[in-house]
Amino acid sequence: MARMRNEERYEAQRTRILAESARIFRDRGYSQTSMEDLANALGVTKAAIYYYYKRKEEILFDICDQALEFAYETTIVTDSSMGAKERLERFVRGGVASIAENMAVFAVLFQETSLRKEARARRIVSRQRKFEIAVQDIFEDGIKEGTFRADLDPRLASLAVLGMCNWVYRWYSHEHYDVETISEEFLKMIDYGAFSN
Fold first, then answer.
1. Total count of domains within the chain
2. Which regions of the chain are under pLDDT 70?
3. 60 near 115, Cβ under 8 Å?
4. What is the DSSP string of 150-164?
């Protein structure tokens, strides 16, 4: 029981470090933020952060991994019985919602590209590429089904959808639009441009 509580405490503090670090990296920039800045914001010593993370890069990569996990959970459909239209709707709705609800982590994922040459960073880029492939597959399947226009370019269509969804982190404010409205408008735009008939 005590071990479980210790693990829960450890995970809660690690989650807190990631959330606060994401906010600071987004606001100040990763390269302009020191471990001391993070410690001050969290109200702990640098040693307390080093207990969880030996290098600042590890925090950055965990934030990026976290963003990709949020996106994967809400966008990728593994149910092969779903048609292309339903899979695309799930992707758009899930993508917009996950970004709107986790703005800081997605801002870090999309903005902080300076360390992309490191091995772990390359894995993150590779995981991002899987989202492009997943959307492209949806369009290819939809063309075969007759759901999407036969002359639609699946790769360009997938890049357009990802661009719309991913850019939400730059301008979203709940004061102006709710997530459902944004998703509906995006889906209408796709509907007018991609669907057959």
1. 1
2. 1-5, 114-116, 194-197
3. yes
4. TT--HHHHHHHHHHH
